[in-house]
Amino acid sequence: MSGPMTAQTARRFNLAGGAITLVTVICAVIWAFPIYWGIISSLKPEDEVVRPVIELWPETLTFDHYWFALTETQIGSWYLNSIVTALGVTFITVTTSMFAGYAISQLRFPGRTALWWLILASFMVPTQVLIINHFVLMANMGLLNSWAGIILPQLIHPVIIIVYKQFFDQVPRDFREAAVMDNASEWRILFKVYVPMNWGVTTALSIVTFIWAWNAFLWPFLAVTKTEMMTITVGITQVWDAFGVYYARQLSAAVLAGFPVALAYLLFQRRVTQAITLSAGIKG
Amino acid sequence: MRYVAGLALGAMLATAAQAEETVVWWDFLAGGDGVRMKQMISEFNESHAGEVAIDATTLEWGVPFYSKVQTSVAVGEAPDVMTYHASRIPLAVKQGLLSEITAEDWEAMGLSEGDFAPSIWESVQGSDGKTYGVPLDTHPIVLYYNKDVLGEAGLLTEDGRPMGMDSREGFTETLTKLKEAGVKFPLGSVTADGNFMFRTIYSLMGQQDGELMTDGEFLVGDNAAKLENALAVLQEWTNEGLQSTYTDYPATVALFTSGEAAMMINGVWEVPTMTDLHAEGKLFEWGAVELPVIFDHPATYSDSHVFAIPAGSAEDPAKRAAVLEVIGSILKGSLFWATAGHIPAYQPVTETDEYKQMEPNATYSPLTANMIYDPKTPLAGVAGPIFDVMSTYFVPTLNGEMEPSEAVEEITYELNDM
Amino acid sequence: MIRNSRKESLIAYALIAPFVAIYGLIFIYPTIDMFILSFQDAPLIGSGDWVGSDNYTRLGRDRRFGTAAWNTAYFVALSVLPGTLVALGIALGVSRLSGRLQALVLALFFLPYILPVSVVFRLWDWTLNFQFGIAMHLFDWVGIDRVPIFKVTAWFMPAVAFVTIWWTCGFSILLFLAGLRAIPQEIYEAAALDNTSRWRTFRRITWPLLWPVTALVLTIQLILQLKIFDQVYLFSQGGRPNDNLVMVYYIFQRAFVNDHGGRAAAIAVVLFFVVIIVSVLNFQLMRFAERRQ
After folding, report:
1. Predicted confidence (pLDDT) per residue in C3-19, tens digit
2. What is the pLDDT at residue A282?
3. Contact, C268 vs A132, CB < 8 A?
4. Window from A18-27, A50-59, B106-115, B143-152 with minimum mean pLDDT
5. Do B208 and B293 contact (CB within 8 A), yes or no?
6. Domain contains C19
7. Is residue C79 part of a domain?
8. Do A33 and A153 lie in a common domain?
9. What angle is formed at CA A267 by the lines to CA A263 and CA A269, rounded to 5 degrees?
């Protein structure tokens, strides 16, 4: 193999590599373009929005639609409902899963194997098929149109337990044995040893659960009939007096709904990335 | 009777004495008329400050609205009062969704049967002989047109109406000439939404004296052929490029107001959209007239908005009194509702000179003589089973995907299979 | 020792109690309830008569059920494999970048995943709007006839699949990136020394080593897409929902629009088994594929 040949190949490699990089970057820009276009359209006056030309920047920049959405609609309550229910789902799911994951990983008790199999099996069952029965159950419990009613049926996330169990399994036995020697109670062991050692996991799992809950549509859509109890995801598509036949107004509401999660992602990009891979069972 | 009146009065006084009574109100008025209704609500709230407050929400028209009503009544989370379509009352009564409007209620509102046209009064009666709604209006569909564009193309008559309104050939010719004059869409139609197109198609059937339902059977005899005729006309316009295709509701309105569609078939509830835009100087000269006579004689599909009280709602006397106060006031002030394009159901309003001179209502109001309604059955009504079946086949037919004859065959099969 | 283990059990039960309580209430009980309801002629709220297997037998001649089943299968075909391939392609492209550029490009690709479905719906409904959408201006410019994407049956499912891939791809991209990072760099260096072509490197090294992640992505996508509802519901509004029915949509329509709780439950049971059977088959298939490798 001659020298020049290798250099040539290397250059061809670099050229091809550069082309791939360029294509990737261009694709990324096109990929995100609808988001940009939605934001830009929401900043145009309504008659400019329907003009048959492509204006990548508004001729007249206006925040009227945002002002309208914030002052004339119930978007404030919807935000509150979304935040409360998403936090509720996250807190309950993560804590109960942490406890259960710890018990299954570290303790021996009758029914342990059965429980573990049940959790693994429920991984396959689609909760969407239960909407009718969830609705009837929540109606009987008088929980429709309430935060509890929105939260409860969203609490089935077997994957969280599975991830916790995997991580607790990996904590070296020595830690546990040392603690047991010290006569520490199981609670102490859990909270002083296992939880602190896995803070990263807890943060990550909380982030994904929060994203799932914030973005949930089907159940909150069914569980709420009163507009002031809607979550933001549901509200912006269901309530018409808010937006009517106004494209820019609808878009501004959409931007407001997507903004908090998008911002959170941009701020905590690394954490979110780690959280997503964890939730699929890959240790990042 | 006096005792009852006293009771109602007592209830009213109790309302006044107590804290403000909140009336939860749902409607589906998302068109230009929604803006008018909002104004009426806020005026009511101002004049009743400290006594009654309306807490109003507008939900998505059609299937979503009626599904929400159904489930919310079932779980006891219904509003205190809601707008409803008269065409859907038979279905609602069968499902037990509505609470009776009793004689005492009518008295408390200060309204009676004599205030309404017989056909409208009839439309709020249940099959059990009870009354289930308070009619607010009648709302037919009309033909909107752009006077500037039609005038330029020489297609306006002397009194400023579109030409060719008396026959299929005549109207098609008007559309063709508009096309030749360079108009992108001579006619804007909500061709993407079969639910909406039901109104136009049913009107065209009515122009041939077609019946949807005869003694419980659907499209009997030559009625199927009449439906096919109606679909064929609309499909012809599509095939000739005379009508906007796959256009959803918001886009239809936008096409017309932006001048891309020269005419539009739509409900009278978009009148305020035009009035307001015109007042702001953002709209051309426009008009609204009765639908063209495509077949034998004029006929226009029409429905009524009524106020209804969900079953199980407003049972507390004070709440009930507040709800009745709301309905009564809105009805008596429905002259303003007429500016939303609708024809008020409360006749003392339509008898005033002020109403008679109101435009464009005065131009299209002769059509009231030619109005036809849904068949009175639990299967009928906005977003009801008939709507649902038919609309499924309207969209492909109107956009040229399916032959009218095939659509009629499928519709007949499915309707009779229900 | 015995005392100890009993104490351990008690603690364990205390720890699992909240989870088991929620699980029983929200999962086990509704599942049993669903089966019972599916044999009744019940409305959504309220009781009904026992009708045996009527609710199931009538599904056989129910056109809408046919539409829903077909559309669901069609949607899965349109979204799972294409979505996985797109994600793999993007991940390969992104993995070549480094530093800030990589973070930026990844953020652009991942951002849609973070958005609620109703926001995704608004964005694409606007972008692809027949009359005013920017995509249609692009069509005009290229000289293709405008297409009312969400109003024509032939376009609906492919378009929803496209939007779904756009929306959910970020998730798969991250998994692929994690998988790519796990491949030791030395293997590539060795391949580069041997002057192996880009394609051969991919086929011989990347693809086989990435297979476990690919299998995982496919599995997650498959189970997820069988349960599609949100996008189809939103894009069908004001259009032709009856032509666009998918399984969960049909459950919703039967139960919440037509007030047929029992019939809806029967559809739910069918979907329940479909998902389980598909999951098990898929699991077996993946194991088989892994063993062959």
Report:
1. 467 888 999 999 999 99
2. 65
3. yes
4. A50-59
5. no
6. no
7. yes
8. no
9. 105
Residue B287 to residues B265, B284, C188, Cα–Cα distance (Å): 12, 10, 74
- How many domains is chain C built from? 1
For residue C209, the one-letter residue type is: L
State the Rg of chain B over Cα: 22
Q: Which of residues 43-102 of C touch A (CB under 8 A)?
A: 44-45, 90, 93-94, 96-97, 101
Q: Which residue segment(s) compose the domain that C194 sits in?
A: 38-292
Query: What is the domain extent for residue A18?
Result: 3-63
pTM: 0.88
Q: All domains of chain B, ordered by start, with CATH?
A: 2-136+304-351 (3.40.190.10), 140-302+366-416 (3.40.190.10)
Q: Which of residues 111-140 of A touch C (CB under 8 A)?
A: 112, 115, 122, 124-137, 139
B77 touches chain C (CB under 8 A): no
Indicate if the pLDDT at residue C274 is higher than 60.
yes
Please give the ipTM for the structure prediction: 0.91
Assess whether pLDDT exceeds 70 at residue A258.
Answer: yes
Structure tokens at B161: 């109406």
The answer to the question of residue A284 being in a domain is no
CATH number at residue A246: 1.10.3720.10
Last residue of a domain, which of A33, A63, A93? A63
Instruction: Please tell me whether residues A250 and A155 are part of one structural domain.
Output: yes
The predicted structure's pLDDT at residue A130:
95
In the block, tokens 């396959």 appear at A124
- Which pLDDT value is given to residue A56? 86
The string of pLDDT tens digits covering residues B207-257 is: 999 999 888 889 999 999 999 999 999 999 999 999 999 888 888 998 899
Indicate yes or no: CB of B246 within 8 angstroms of CB of C148: yes
Helices and strands: H and E segment counts in chain C: 14, 2
Mean pLDDT of C49-70: 92
Amino acid at A59: E
Q: Inter-chain contact C27–A130, Cβ cutoff 8 Å?
A: yes
Q: Is residue C229 part of a domain?
A: yes
Residue of C nearest to A105 (CA): C12
